[in-house]
Amino acid sequence: MDITQEVLRVLDEVLSLNGRSTTFTRDTPLLGAIPELDSMAVVTLITTLEDQFGLVVDDDDIDGSTFASVGSLADFVSSKLSG
């Protein structure tokens, strides 16, 4: 499974980006750069990632750096899957 591609698919779905995520790379900034990614969207995104990947995300697992870029979010998901 390509975690980055799955994260991009979830981002596109949750934020209703209508395919815009196909132009994103690991370096694409998220928080503060994508207007659709507001505080409510972060909660929905976390819940969807938990459902899609079978993860459990604790409140203290998350900080702003998790959502800094596509790569940081994908790395977070990878670390949760391997941990």
List its traits.
mainly alpha
Estimate the helix proportion, in percent. 40-55%
Alpha carbon gap, first and last residue: 17 Å
Low-confidence stretches: none
Give the overall average pLDDT. 95
- How much is the radius of gyration in Å? 11 Å
Oligomer: single chain
Number of strands: 0
- What's the shape? globular
Order of helices and strands: HHH
- Largest beta-sheet characterization: none
Binned strand content: under 5%
Helix segment tally:
3
Helix/strand-derived category reads mainly alpha
How would you summarize the topology of this molecule?
Blueprint (H helix, E strand, L loop, with lengths): L2 H12 L24 H15 L16 H13 L1
Write a structural description.
With about 80 residues, this protein is mainly α. Helix 1 crosses helix 2 and helix 1 crosses helix 3. The longest helix has 15 residues. The radius of gyration is 11 Å and the shape is globular.
